[in-house]
Specification:
The protein is of the alpha/beta class and 616 residues long. The protein contains 18 helices and 17 strands. 40% of the residues are buried.
Length: 616
Amino acid sequence: MLINMVVHQPQSLIQVVSHTPYWVWGLLAALVALGASQLRDRRAGLRRILLMPLGMAVFSAAGVVSAFGASGQTAAQAVGAWLLAAAVITALALWFQPTAPEGTRYTASARSFHIPGSAMPLVLILGIFLTKYFVGVELAMQPSLARDASFALQISALYGVFNGARRRQAGLVHARRHLPAGQSALDHPVGRQRPPLGRLPCRGLGHRAGGARRHSVCVGRRLWPARTHGPGRAGPPDGSAGQSLLNHSPKPAMTHPVAQTLLQQLASGLLAFAAATAAFMPTASHAGTGLTELPGLQGDGPVTVFYPTAAADQAVQRAAFTLQLAHQAEPMRGNGRLVVITHGSGGNPWVHTDLAHALVAAGFVVALPEHAGDNSKDPSTPGPDSWKRRPGEVSRAVDAIAQDSRLAPLLALDKVGVFGGSAGGHTALTFAGGRWSPARFKQHCDAHIADDFSSCVGSFTRLRGNLFDGLKKAVALGVIRMRFDDPAEQAYQDPRVHAAVASVPFAADFDMASLAAPRIPLGLVTASKDVNQIPRFHSSAVLAACQGRCTHIADFTDGSHGVMLSPMPPLHLLSDVTRELLIDPPGFDRSQLAQVDTKIVAFFAQHLQPLQSRTP
C-alpha cells in the first residue's frame, strides 16, 4: 500500500514523514552514527565487536514481534523465518569465506583485533531500520497485514538476511576458535594474505628434513620451517617467533564432486531466495484498488465501490477512461472506514478515480452513488431538484454497503466521511448542517445572473458579450422564477456522517449562518480562477461564514472548476461550453492535485479515527 501511494501520489511521502514521531528520527540518527563509526579502522576486543550484531539482532527481533507478535500462528512462523534466514545466510558466509576480512590483525597479549573500516555495517543497519519503518507505515495504513502469513514470512526473512549478512563478525568468531594459546603480543594478520610465489600449501604441522624432525607453522596457508633450539633454526619470513595465523587451518575441501555440486546449487538457491525476498517484498505488501458495483436501494442507481485488495491492478476500460483497477477482486481489510464521494452535475465515478486510489491506499473503502437525473447517463434534472434527492442517495449508498456480505464485515459504519465537488460539494455542505432553499437559489440568480451565469444555467450556454446575452438572461430567469420559488428550508442529517469535504461547491443558495458552526468537521477546497462557481458567491462565502470553525484544505490559486476532477475527461468529448467551464487555465500544473488528495485523506483519517485493528 505504501508503495502504491508513492507510485500514484509521490507527494504523499511528505504526509507520511510529517506524521512520523520525532523519536524515530532520533533513533535513525543514533543508528547512522553507529554505522558511520564502522567506516574507520579501529581496535576492539571480541566481546565489543559482537555487541553491534547482537544489538541489531535484538532490533530485528523487536521488529518481528511488534509487527506480528499478536497474531498467534503467524507470529511463530515469522520468528521461524527470521531465524532460518539468519542461520542460512551466516552459514553461507562462513562457508564461502571462513576467515576474517583482509587487513584484520590480532594482538594476542591484549586479546584485541585491529579491524579495517567498512561501509557494510552502515548499509545493513539502514536496511534493518528502513524495513522496520516500512512495516510500521504499512501496518498503520493496513492493519490486516499483521495477520497475513505471506507478508510476515517475507518481512521476517528479510530481517534474517540482514542479520545473517554480518560475515565480518562470523569470520572473527570462527577464526578465533582456532587460535593456539601462548602467542606473543605481536600483531599478525588474520585475514587472507597473498604469500610469496613458489610456496606450497600446508599439509601438516610437521615434517622431517635431513633426518631430523623439524616443526613448521602455517603462514597464509603456506608451510614455513619454524625455529628450533639452537643455531640455524628457521622461522617465518617476517622474523616473528612462535606465531600462528588465525586462519592457519586450511578451508575444508569437498572431495566428492557430486556433494560439491549440490552444495553450490544449494548456496545459489538460498542466495537467490534472499534476493527474491528483498525484491518481492514491496509487491507483496502492495495493495491494489478493487472495483465492484452494487445495486442501489429503493430504486436508486448503482453504487460504484473502490476498496483495498491484495490483487494487482490491471487496465480497466470505463467509458472514455482507461484505469488501473482490480475488477471484482477479493476485498481485504483496510482501516475499517468508509468515505462516500458524491459526484458533480452530469458526473460519473471515473473522474474521481485518483482520489479513490489515494483513499484506498490509506485503507478506506470508497462508495460513489449515481445521482438520479444528474449523471453522465441521465442529466435531465440537475440543480435544486437533484440537490433535494442527493443526501438520501448518499445515506442509502451507506446502507447498500452495510448489506453487502463481502464489504460489511470489513467496516465500522458508525463514522463515515463524505466528499463532493460542485453539486457534490453542495451535498457535502448539507451534511455539515447547511440549510438551503430553492427560493434562495432564485434570489441569487435574480441578483447575479450576469456575474454567475453558469451557476444559474449550467453548461447549456454561456454569455458571449453579444446581442444574444440579454435574451439568454431573460429566458434563464423566466425558467428559474417559474420552477424554483419554494421557500421551504432544506436540511438533512445522517448521524453516521462524521466529516465532510466540499470542493469548489455550489453554495449561493445556503443560509450562511447555518454554516457558521458546522455540525461536523468540514473541509474546503477552493480554486481562485473558478469560472463555473464564482468563488465570491460560493466557496469564499462559505469560508467567510465558518472562518476558524472549518478547515481550508487547499486553494488552487491558478486553478478553475476542473480541479475537482482527476482524471479529467477527454476534452474532445465535451461540449464547447463544458470544456470552457472545466478546462485548466494556462500554466496550471495538474501534478499538485495528488498532494491535495493526500491532504484530503489526512483530513478524513484525522476525523474518522481509522481503526488500527479489528477482529474478523
